[in-house]
Amino acid sequence: MTTAYKLNTPIGVLEILASQSALTSIQLVSEEQEPQTEIPPEGIITQAVQQLQQYFSRELKQFDLPLDWTRSTAFRKQTLQSAMQIPWGMVITYGELSKLSGSDRAGRACGGALAKNPFMIVVPCHRVIGSDGSLHGFSAEGGIKVKQWLLEFEGVQFKNGKVVR
Question: Is the pTM of this model over 0.85?
Answer without folding.
Answer: yes
